[in-house]
Specification:
This protein is α/β, with parallel strands linked by helices. The protein contains 12 helices and 11 strands. About 35% of the residues lie in helices and about 15% in strands. The termini are close together. Bound molecules: flavin-adenine dinucleotide.
Protein backbone atom coordinates (compact mmCIF):
# COMPACT_ATOMS: atom_id res chain seq x y z
CA UNK A 1 0.00 0.00 0.00
CA UNK A 2 1.60 3.16 -1.16
CA UNK A 3 0.94 4.99 2.04
CA UNK A 4 2.63 8.09 0.86
CA UNK A 5 2.33 9.46 4.33
CA UNK A 6 4.98 11.83 3.37
CA UNK A 7 6.98 12.64 6.42
CA UNK A 8 8.09 15.95 5.09
CA UNK A 9 11.56 14.74 4.22
CA UNK A 10 11.39 16.27 0.77
CA UNK A 11 10.69 19.73 2.11
CA UNK A 12 13.25 19.36 4.67
CA UNK A 13 16.41 21.20 3.92
CA UNK A 14 15.08 22.63 0.68
CA UNK A 15 15.91 26.27 0.18
CA UNK A 16 15.09 28.63 -2.59
CA UNK A 17 17.80 28.90 -5.13
CA UNK A 18 20.64 31.26 -4.71
CA UNK A 19 23.59 32.24 -6.85
CA UNK A 20 23.71 30.35 -10.09
CA UNK A 21 21.50 27.48 -8.98
CA UNK A 22 18.09 27.82 -10.61
CA UNK A 23 16.43 24.72 -9.26
CA UNK A 24 17.08 25.05 -5.56
CA UNK A 25 19.05 23.02 -3.10
CA UNK A 26 18.41 20.11 -0.79
CA UNK A 27 20.87 19.64 2.03
CA UNK A 28 21.29 16.65 4.25
CA UNK A 29 21.80 17.67 7.85
CA UNK A 30 24.87 16.67 9.76
CA UNK A 31 23.32 13.71 11.54
CA UNK A 32 21.98 12.39 8.21
CA UNK A 33 18.55 11.77 9.60
CA UNK A 34 15.31 13.60 8.96
CA UNK A 35 14.01 15.59 11.89
CA UNK A 36 11.19 14.21 14.01
CA UNK A 37 7.78 15.04 12.68
CA UNK A 38 4.74 16.05 14.64
CA UNK A 39 2.40 13.30 15.73
CA UNK A 40 0.02 12.28 13.01
CA UNK A 41 -2.83 10.80 14.95
CA UNK A 42 -4.73 11.71 18.06
CA UNK A 43 -3.89 8.89 20.40
CA UNK A 44 -6.18 5.94 20.04
CA UNK A 45 -9.40 7.82 20.70
CA UNK A 46 -10.40 8.80 17.18
CA UNK A 47 -13.70 7.83 15.61
CA UNK A 48 -12.42 4.34 15.03
CA UNK A 49 -11.28 3.76 18.57
CA UNK A 50 -12.24 0.11 18.41
CA UNK A 51 -9.71 -0.28 15.65
CA UNK A 52 -6.99 1.61 17.39
CA UNK A 53 -5.10 -1.51 18.28
CA UNK A 54 -5.07 -2.67 14.75
CA UNK A 55 -1.75 -4.31 14.02
CA UNK A 56 0.03 -2.20 16.53
CA UNK A 57 1.36 -4.85 18.91
CA UNK A 58 2.52 -7.01 16.04
CA UNK A 59 4.66 -4.53 14.23
CA UNK A 60 8.35 -4.15 13.77
CA UNK A 61 9.92 -0.79 14.40
CA UNK A 62 11.11 1.45 11.62
CA UNK A 63 13.95 3.86 12.07
CA UNK A 64 11.63 6.71 12.60
CA UNK A 65 10.74 6.29 16.23
CA UNK A 66 14.17 5.17 17.21
CA UNK A 67 17.64 5.85 15.99
CA UNK A 68 18.21 4.37 12.55
CA UNK A 69 18.82 0.67 12.73
CA UNK A 70 18.75 0.42 16.50
CA UNK A 71 16.45 -1.73 18.59
CA UNK A 72 15.08 -3.52 15.58
CA UNK A 73 16.28 -6.98 16.40
CA UNK A 74 15.06 -6.80 19.97
CA UNK A 75 11.72 -5.52 18.82
CA UNK A 76 11.39 -8.19 16.14
CA UNK A 77 11.93 -10.90 18.69
CA UNK A 78 8.94 -9.72 20.66
CA UNK A 79 6.65 -9.62 17.66
CA UNK A 80 3.55 -11.68 17.32
CA UNK A 81 3.46 -13.07 13.82
CA UNK A 82 0.35 -12.75 11.65
CA UNK A 83 0.41 -15.26 8.85
CA UNK A 84 -1.59 -15.37 5.66
CA UNK A 85 -3.71 -18.32 6.73
CA UNK A 86 -5.06 -16.38 9.69
CA UNK A 87 -7.42 -14.35 7.57
CA UNK A 88 -9.89 -15.09 4.83
CA UNK A 89 -8.53 -13.76 1.55
CA UNK A 90 -11.83 -14.42 -0.22
CA UNK A 91 -13.68 -11.99 2.06
CA UNK A 92 -11.01 -9.37 1.44
CA UNK A 93 -11.24 -9.73 -2.32
CA UNK A 94 -15.02 -9.62 -2.32
CA UNK A 95 -15.25 -6.54 -0.14
CA UNK A 96 -12.49 -4.83 -2.06
CA UNK A 97 -14.39 -5.47 -5.29
CA UNK A 98 -17.31 -3.48 -3.84
CA UNK A 99 -15.00 -0.60 -3.08
CA UNK A 100 -13.29 -0.88 -6.46
CA UNK A 101 -16.55 -0.01 -8.17
CA UNK A 102 -16.14 3.44 -6.61
CA UNK A 103 -12.38 3.71 -6.52
CA UNK A 104 -12.02 7.46 -6.92
CA UNK A 105 -14.81 8.18 -4.45
CA UNK A 106 -13.27 5.72 -2.03
CA UNK A 107 -9.88 7.39 -2.25
CA UNK A 108 -11.49 10.83 -1.80
CA UNK A 109 -13.24 9.48 1.27
CA UNK A 110 -10.06 7.88 2.52
CA UNK A 111 -7.94 11.03 2.31
CA UNK A 112 -10.68 13.32 3.63
CA UNK A 113 -11.04 10.99 6.58
CA UNK A 114 -7.29 10.76 7.11
CA UNK A 115 -6.90 14.51 6.96
CA UNK A 116 -9.78 15.09 9.34
CA UNK A 117 -8.52 12.54 11.86
CA UNK A 118 -5.01 13.93 11.50
CA UNK A 119 -5.16 17.42 9.97
CA UNK A 120 -1.41 17.79 9.99
CA UNK A 121 -1.06 14.94 7.49
CA UNK A 122 -2.33 17.19 4.72
CA UNK A 123 0.93 19.06 4.76
CA UNK A 124 2.78 15.85 4.13
CA UNK A 125 1.34 15.28 0.66
CA UNK A 126 1.89 17.10 -2.60
CA UNK A 127 -0.58 19.82 -3.49
CA UNK A 128 -2.10 17.83 -6.34
CA UNK A 129 -3.51 14.59 -4.96
CA UNK A 130 -5.02 12.92 -8.04
CA UNK A 131 -1.93 10.90 -8.98
CA UNK A 132 -1.42 10.00 -5.33
CA UNK A 133 -4.98 8.72 -5.03
CA UNK A 134 -4.61 6.62 -8.16
CA UNK A 135 -1.25 5.25 -7.07
CA UNK A 136 -2.46 4.29 -3.63
CA UNK A 137 -5.56 2.63 -4.99
CA UNK A 138 -3.56 0.72 -7.59
CA UNK A 139 -1.12 -0.47 -4.93
CA UNK A 140 -3.97 -1.58 -2.73
CA UNK A 141 -5.59 -3.38 -5.64
CA UNK A 142 -2.38 -5.17 -6.34
CA UNK A 143 -1.97 -6.17 -2.74
CA UNK A 144 -5.49 -7.57 -2.58
CA UNK A 145 -4.91 -9.41 -5.83
CA UNK A 146 -1.83 -11.22 -4.52
CA UNK A 147 -2.77 -11.47 -0.86
CA UNK A 148 -3.22 -15.24 -0.99
CA UNK A 149 0.16 -15.73 -2.61
CA UNK A 150 2.67 -15.71 0.27
CA UNK A 151 5.88 -15.16 -1.67
CA UNK A 152 4.49 -12.44 -3.93
CA UNK A 153 2.68 -10.54 -1.22
CA UNK A 154 5.67 -10.69 1.13
CA UNK A 155 8.00 -9.40 -1.59
CA UNK A 156 5.64 -6.64 -2.59
CA UNK A 157 5.01 -5.50 0.96
CA UNK A 158 8.71 -5.53 1.71
CA UNK A 159 9.29 -3.33 -1.34
CA UNK A 160 6.57 -0.95 -0.20
CA UNK A 161 8.04 -0.81 3.29
CA UNK A 162 11.50 -0.03 1.99
CA UNK A 163 10.19 2.63 -0.34
CA UNK A 164 8.10 4.41 2.22
CA UNK A 165 11.18 5.23 4.23
CA UNK A 166 11.79 8.13 1.87
CA UNK A 167 8.52 9.69 3.02
CA UNK A 168 9.70 9.64 6.63
CA UNK A 169 6.99 7.13 7.60
CA UNK A 170 6.84 6.32 11.30
CA UNK A 171 5.11 3.59 13.26
CA UNK A 172 2.16 5.82 14.06
CA UNK A 173 1.67 6.61 10.37
CA UNK A 174 1.08 2.95 9.65
CA UNK A 175 -1.45 2.83 12.41
CA UNK A 176 -3.35 5.91 11.20
CA UNK A 177 -3.25 4.84 7.59
CA UNK A 178 -4.47 1.31 8.15
CA UNK A 179 -7.10 2.38 10.61
CA UNK A 180 -8.60 4.85 8.16
CA UNK A 181 -8.25 2.34 5.36
CA UNK A 182 -10.24 -0.20 7.33
CA UNK A 183 -12.94 2.39 7.98
CA UNK A 184 -13.02 3.24 4.29
CA UNK A 185 -13.50 -0.36 3.17
CA UNK A 186 -16.21 -0.78 5.80
CA UNK A 187 -17.94 2.40 4.62
CA UNK A 188 -17.98 1.27 0.99
CA UNK A 189 -19.31 -2.13 1.99
CA UNK A 190 -22.08 -0.73 4.11
CA UNK A 191 -24.67 -3.42 3.35
CA UNK A 192 -22.24 -6.34 3.34
CA UNK A 193 -19.89 -5.62 6.22
CA UNK A 194 -19.80 -8.50 8.69
CA UNK A 195 -17.64 -9.25 11.74
CA UNK A 196 -15.91 -11.92 9.62
CA UNK A 197 -15.06 -9.40 6.90
CA UNK A 198 -13.76 -6.97 9.45
CA UNK A 199 -11.65 -9.70 11.05
CA UNK A 200 -10.25 -10.64 7.65
CA UNK A 201 -9.22 -7.04 6.94
CA UNK A 202 -7.76 -6.59 10.38
CA UNK A 203 -5.66 -9.70 9.88
CA UNK A 204 -4.56 -8.67 6.42
CA UNK A 205 -3.63 -5.15 7.46
CA UNK A 206 -1.73 -6.41 10.47
CA UNK A 207 0.15 -8.77 8.18
CA UNK A 208 0.82 -5.95 5.69
CA UNK A 209 2.00 -3.52 8.33
CA UNK A 210 4.29 -6.08 9.88
CA UNK A 211 5.92 -7.03 6.58
CA UNK A 212 6.35 -3.41 5.54
CA UNK A 213 7.79 -2.30 8.81
CA UNK A 214 10.20 -5.13 9.26
CA UNK A 215 11.52 -4.65 5.71
CA UNK A 216 11.92 -0.94 6.38
CA UNK A 217 13.71 -1.63 9.65
CA UNK A 218 16.07 -4.11 7.99
CA UNK A 219 16.83 -1.63 5.20
CA UNK A 220 17.47 1.13 7.73
CA UNK A 221 20.43 -0.81 9.06
CA UNK A 222 22.31 -0.39 5.80
CA UNK A 223 20.95 2.51 3.79
CA UNK A 224 19.56 5.99 4.32
CA UNK A 225 15.93 6.53 3.31
CA UNK A 226 16.93 9.01 0.63
CA UNK A 227 19.99 10.61 -0.89
CA UNK A 228 20.77 14.17 -1.87
CA UNK A 229 21.99 14.12 -5.46
CA UNK A 230 23.99 16.93 -6.97
CA UNK A 231 23.53 17.52 -10.66
CA UNK A 232 27.05 17.48 -12.06
CA UNK A 233 26.15 17.34 -15.74
CA UNK A 234 23.18 18.59 -17.74
CA UNK A 235 23.34 17.79 -21.43
CA UNK A 236 20.35 19.10 -23.35
CA UNK A 237 20.24 16.70 -26.28
CA UNK A 238 17.11 18.06 -27.93
CA UNK A 239 14.24 20.43 -27.32
CA UNK A 240 12.61 17.92 -25.00
CA UNK A 241 15.34 15.56 -23.80
CA UNK A 242 18.23 16.05 -21.38
CA UNK A 243 20.78 13.61 -20.05
CA UNK A 244 21.19 14.55 -16.41
CA UNK A 245 24.24 13.25 -14.54
CA UNK A 246 23.84 13.09 -10.76
CA UNK A 247 26.27 12.45 -7.94
CA UNK A 248 24.49 11.00 -4.87
CA UNK A 249 25.88 12.06 -1.50
CA UNK A 250 26.70 8.47 -0.58
CA UNK A 251 26.76 5.00 -2.09
CA UNK A 252 23.39 4.36 -3.73
CA UNK A 253 23.04 0.67 -4.56
CA UNK A 254 21.16 -0.38 -7.67
CA UNK A 255 21.09 -3.01 -10.35
CA UNK A 256 21.19 -2.24 -14.08
CA UNK A 257 17.64 -1.89 -15.37
CA UNK A 258 16.29 -0.29 -12.19
CA UNK A 259 14.87 3.18 -11.67
CA UNK A 260 15.04 5.82 -8.96
CA UNK A 261 12.34 8.04 -7.48
CA UNK A 262 13.42 11.64 -8.02
CA UNK A 263 12.15 14.81 -6.37
CA UNK A 264 13.05 18.38 -7.33
CA UNK A 265 12.98 21.24 -4.79
CA UNK A 266 10.52 23.11 -6.96
CA UNK A 267 7.83 20.45 -6.40
CA UNK A 268 8.02 19.30 -2.80
CA UNK A 269 6.83 15.80 -2.05
CA UNK A 270 6.32 14.94 -5.71
CA UNK A 271 8.35 11.84 -6.57
CA UNK A 272 8.69 10.50 -10.10
CA UNK A 273 10.59 7.40 -11.21
CA UNK A 274 13.41 7.71 -13.77
CA UNK A 275 15.42 4.80 -15.10
CA UNK A 276 19.15 4.77 -14.51
CA UNK A 277 20.95 4.78 -17.85
CA UNK A 278 24.28 3.29 -16.83
CA UNK A 279 25.65 0.24 -15.06
CA UNK A 280 27.14 1.10 -11.64
CA UNK A 281 30.34 3.15 -11.90
CA UNK A 282 33.24 3.50 -9.51
CA UNK A 283 32.50 7.23 -9.34
CA UNK A 284 28.92 6.57 -8.23
CA UNK A 285 27.66 8.91 -10.97
CA UNK A 286 24.20 8.19 -12.32
CA UNK A 287 22.83 9.22 -15.72
CA UNK A 288 19.12 9.83 -16.22
CA UNK A 289 17.53 10.40 -19.64
CA UNK A 290 14.62 12.73 -19.08
CA UNK A 291 11.98 13.77 -21.58
CA UNK A 292 9.93 16.85 -20.72
CA UNK A 293 6.24 15.98 -21.05
CA UNK A 294 3.92 18.92 -21.73
CA UNK A 295 2.85 20.38 -18.41
CA UNK A 296 4.94 17.84 -16.52
CA UNK A 297 6.13 19.01 -13.12
CA UNK A 298 9.28 17.02 -12.53
CA UNK A 299 10.29 16.28 -16.12
CA UNK A 300 10.07 19.87 -17.37
CA UNK A 301 11.96 21.06 -14.31
CA UNK A 302 14.73 18.56 -14.91
CA UNK A 303 14.96 19.25 -18.63
CA UNK A 304 14.35 23.00 -18.85
CA UNK A 305 15.37 24.45 -15.49
CA UNK A 306 17.95 22.22 -13.89
CA UNK A 307 21.64 22.99 -14.20
CA UNK A 308 24.91 21.72 -12.82
CA UNK A 309 25.11 22.57 -9.11
CA UNK A 310 21.41 22.03 -8.46
CA UNK A 311 20.34 19.23 -6.18
CA UNK A 312 17.55 16.69 -6.20
CA UNK A 313 16.38 14.03 -3.77
CA UNK A 314 16.77 10.40 -4.79
CA UNK A 315 14.84 7.51 -3.32
CA UNK A 316 16.04 3.90 -3.28
CA UNK A 317 16.31 2.03 -6.57
CA UNK A 318 13.49 -0.27 -7.57
CA UNK A 319 12.34 -2.33 -10.49
CA UNK A 320 12.34 -5.89 -11.63
CA UNK A 321 13.51 -5.45 -15.21
CA UNK A 322 17.00 -6.75 -14.51
CA UNK A 323 19.82 -8.11 -16.64
CA UNK A 324 19.34 -11.82 -17.31
CA UNK A 325 21.06 -14.55 -15.38
CA UNK A 326 20.99 -16.75 -18.49
CA UNK A 327 23.44 -16.99 -21.42
CA UNK A 328 20.73 -16.23 -23.96
CA UNK A 329 21.05 -13.57 -26.62
CA UNK A 330 19.35 -10.24 -25.99
CA UNK A 331 16.74 -8.56 -28.13
CA UNK A 332 16.14 -5.01 -26.91
CA UNK A 333 13.50 -2.65 -28.17
CA UNK A 334 13.72 0.87 -26.78
CA UNK A 335 11.51 3.83 -27.60
CA UNK A 336 12.58 7.38 -26.71
CA UNK A 337 14.01 7.65 -23.20
CA UNK A 338 13.06 3.99 -22.74
CA UNK A 339 16.59 3.56 -23.95
CA UNK A 340 17.92 4.39 -20.48
CA UNK A 341 17.45 1.08 -18.60
CA UNK A 342 18.24 -0.93 -21.70
CA UNK A 343 21.54 0.90 -22.06
CA UNK A 344 22.37 0.13 -18.42
CA UNK A 345 21.63 -3.56 -19.00
CA UNK A 346 23.75 -3.64 -22.17
CA UNK A 347 26.65 -1.97 -20.35
CA UNK A 348 26.32 -4.56 -17.61
CA UNK A 349 26.31 -7.42 -20.11
CA UNK A 350 29.50 -6.08 -21.66
CA UNK A 351 31.25 -6.54 -18.31
CA UNK A 352 30.26 -10.18 -18.08
CA UNK A 353 32.02 -13.16 -19.49
CA UNK A 354 30.81 -14.33 -22.89
CA UNK A 355 28.98 -17.67 -22.97
CA UNK A 356 31.33 -20.60 -23.59
CA UNK A 357 32.32 -20.92 -27.23
CA UNK A 358 30.34 -18.03 -28.67
CA UNK A 359 29.74 -14.30 -28.55
CA UNK A 360 26.41 -13.27 -27.09
CA UNK A 361 24.31 -11.44 -29.66
CA UNK A 362 22.72 -8.23 -28.40
CA UNK A 363 20.40 -6.49 -30.85
CA UNK A 364 19.10 -3.08 -29.89
CA UNK A 365 16.32 -1.45 -31.86
CA UNK A 366 16.34 2.20 -30.85
CA UNK A 367 12.98 3.51 -31.94
CA UNK A 368 12.29 7.23 -32.19
CA UNK A 369 9.68 9.47 -33.70
CA UNK A 370 12.28 11.14 -35.89
CA UNK A 371 16.02 11.76 -36.21
CA UNK A 372 16.15 14.42 -33.43
CA UNK A 373 14.61 11.87 -31.09
CA UNK A 374 17.63 9.61 -31.52
CA UNK A 375 19.24 11.75 -28.86
CA UNK A 376 21.84 9.18 -27.81
CA UNK A 377 22.91 7.82 -31.19
CA UNK A 378 26.61 8.87 -30.99
CA UNK A 379 26.95 7.11 -27.66
CA UNK A 380 25.18 4.02 -28.96
CA UNK A 381 27.54 3.89 -31.92
CA UNK A 382 30.46 4.13 -29.51
CA UNK A 383 28.99 1.27 -27.47
CA UNK A 384 28.54 -0.78 -30.62
CA UNK A 385 32.20 -0.51 -31.49
CA UNK A 386 33.24 -1.33 -27.92
CA UNK A 387 30.96 -4.32 -27.26
CA UNK A 388 31.41 -7.45 -29.35
CA UNK A 389 28.10 -8.89 -30.50
CA UNK A 390 26.15 -5.64 -30.09
CA UNK A 391 24.18 -4.40 -33.08
CA UNK A 392 22.41 -1.04 -32.77
CA UNK A 393 19.60 -0.52 -35.25
CA UNK A 394 18.12 3.00 -35.20
CA UNK A 395 14.45 3.05 -36.14
CA UNK A 396 13.58 6.71 -36.80
CA UNK A 397 10.06 5.78 -37.94
CA UNK A 398 9.30 4.71 -34.38
CA UNK A 399 7.91 1.42 -35.70
CA UNK A 400 9.50 -1.88 -34.88
CA UNK A 401 10.58 -3.50 -38.12
CA UNK A 402 9.24 -6.97 -38.70
CA UNK A 403 12.15 -9.09 -37.59
CA UNK A 404 10.35 -12.41 -37.71
CA UNK A 405 12.43 -14.86 -39.68
CA UNK A 406 15.71 -13.15 -38.77
CA UNK A 407 16.43 -15.58 -35.94
CA UNK A 408 16.57 -12.73 -33.43
CA UNK A 409 13.58 -14.09 -31.55
CA UNK A 410 15.00 -17.52 -31.01
CA UNK A 411 15.62 -18.34 -27.40
CA UNK A 412 16.35 -14.72 -26.53
CA UNK A 413 15.73 -12.55 -23.50
CA UNK A 414 13.63 -9.64 -24.72
CA UNK A 415 13.73 -6.17 -23.11
CA UNK A 416 11.12 -3.65 -24.11
CA UNK A 417 11.05 -0.13 -22.77
CA UNK A 418 9.34 3.03 -23.96
CA UNK A 419 5.86 4.46 -24.38
CA UNK A 420 3.17 2.14 -23.03
CA UNK A 421 1.56 1.62 -26.44
CA UNK A 422 4.89 0.56 -27.92
CA UNK A 423 5.58 -1.80 -25.03
CA UNK A 424 2.14 -3.41 -25.36
CA UNK A 425 2.40 -3.77 -29.12
CA UNK A 426 5.91 -5.22 -29.02
CA UNK A 427 5.03 -7.57 -26.18
CA UNK A 428 2.11 -8.88 -28.20
CA UNK A 429 4.32 -9.35 -31.22
CA UNK A 430 6.94 -11.21 -29.21
CA UNK A 431 4.50 -13.28 -27.19
CA UNK A 432 4.04 -15.71 -30.07
CA UNK A 433 7.77 -16.40 -30.22
CA UNK A 434 9.29 -15.83 -26.79
CA UNK A 435 8.34 -17.41 -23.46
CA UNK A 436 6.56 -14.97 -21.14
CA UNK A 437 9.27 -15.17 -18.48
CA UNK A 438 11.87 -14.13 -21.07
CA UNK A 439 10.00 -10.92 -21.96
CA UNK A 440 10.92 -8.06 -19.63
CA UNK A 441 9.45 -4.60 -19.32
CA UNK A 442 8.79 -1.98 -16.70
CA UNK A 443 5.31 -1.48 -15.28
CA UNK A 444 2.60 -0.29 -17.57
CA UNK A 445 -0.10 2.08 -16.43
CA UNK A 446 -3.66 0.76 -16.07
CA UNK A 447 -2.65 -2.77 -15.16
CA UNK A 448 -2.71 -2.92 -11.39
CA UNK A 449 -4.43 -6.28 -11.30
CA UNK A 450 -1.90 -8.34 -13.20
CA UNK A 451 0.14 -10.78 -11.14
CA UNK A 452 3.66 -9.65 -10.23
CA UNK A 453 5.57 -12.04 -12.45
CA UNK A 454 3.70 -10.90 -15.52
CA UNK A 455 3.36 -7.22 -14.84
CA UNK A 456 6.54 -6.18 -13.05
CA UNK A 457 4.44 -3.43 -11.60
CA UNK A 458 5.90 -0.41 -10.00
CA UNK A 459 3.45 1.24 -7.73
CA UNK A 460 5.34 2.56 -4.69
C1 LIG B 1 9.26 2.71 -14.04
C2 LIG B 1 9.26 4.05 -14.72
C3 LIG B 1 10.44 4.52 -15.27
C4 LIG B 1 10.45 5.76 -15.91
N1 LIG B 1 11.60 6.19 -16.48
C5 LIG B 1 11.63 7.35 -17.15
C6 LIG B 1 12.83 7.81 -17.79
O1 LIG B 1 13.87 7.16 -17.75
N2 LIG B 1 12.78 9.00 -18.45
C7 LIG B 1 11.63 9.75 -18.51
O2 LIG B 1 11.66 10.84 -19.12
N3 LIG B 1 10.48 9.35 -17.91
C8 LIG B 1 10.46 8.18 -17.22
N4 LIG B 1 9.31 7.76 -16.61
C9 LIG B 1 8.15 8.67 -16.59
C10 LIG B 1 8.33 9.64 -15.41
O3 LIG B 1 8.31 8.92 -14.20
C11 LIG B 1 7.23 10.69 -15.28
O4 LIG B 1 5.99 10.05 -15.31
C12 LIG B 1 7.27 11.70 -16.40
O5 LIG B 1 8.53 12.33 -16.43
C13 LIG B 1 6.18 12.77 -16.17
O6 LIG B 1 6.32 13.29 -14.88
P1 LIG B 1 5.99 14.84 -14.63
O7 LIG B 1 6.02 15.07 -13.16
O8 LIG B 1 6.86 15.70 -15.45
O9 LIG B 1 4.54 14.96 -15.23
P2 LIG B 1 3.17 15.06 -14.41
O10 LIG B 1 3.15 16.36 -13.72
O11 LIG B 1 3.03 13.80 -13.63
O12 LIG B 1 2.11 15.01 -15.57
C14 LIG B 1 1.75 16.16 -16.33
C15 LIG B 1 0.88 15.78 -17.47
O13 LIG B 1 1.61 14.95 -18.38
C16 LIG B 1 0.96 13.70 -18.55
N5 LIG B 1 2.00 12.68 -18.65
C17 LIG B 1 2.63 12.08 -17.62
N6 LIG B 1 3.57 11.23 -18.09
C18 LIG B 1 3.51 11.32 -19.43
C19 LIG B 1 4.23 10.69 -20.48
N7 LIG B 1 5.20 9.78 -20.24
N8 LIG B 1 3.91 11.04 -21.75
C20 LIG B 1 2.96 11.95 -22.01
N9 LIG B 1 2.25 12.58 -21.05
C21 LIG B 1 2.50 12.27 -19.79
C22 LIG B 1 0.08 13.53 -17.33
O14 LIG B 1 -1.02 12.70 -17.61
C23 LIG B 1 -0.33 14.95 -17.03
O15 LIG B 1 -1.40 15.33 -17.82
C24 LIG B 1 9.27 6.53 -15.99
C25 LIG B 1 8.09 6.05 -15.43
C26 LIG B 1 8.08 4.82 -14.81
C27 LIG B 1 6.79 4.32 -14.23
Amino acid sequence: VAIALDGGVPDYGARSSSGSSRLGVFKRPRDSRPPDLPSLIPDRDGPAASLADLAQPTLARTESNAAVGRETAAHDEGEKSVSLDEFDARLIKESFAHMADNSSLAMEYFYSHLFSVSPETRGMFPMGMSQMRETVFAALARLVWIVDSPAESAAYLAQLGRHHRKYGVKDKHYQAFFRVLLNTVAYFNAGNWTPETEAAWQGMLAYAARKMRSAAAAEAKNHPPWWVGEIVGHDRRSETVAVVTIKPDGPLPYRPGQYLPVQVPRWPRVWRPYSIANAPRGSGLIDLHVRAVPGGMVSTTLVRQAAAGDTVLLGPAAGEMLAPASDRDLLCVAGGTGLAPVKAIIEDMSRRQQPAGRTRKITLFAAARGEPDLYDLPDLIRLQSAIPGLAVIPVPSGLLPDVRGTGLFENCEAYICGPAAMVRQTTLLLAAHVAAEQIHHDPLPDEPFRPVAASRQYLA
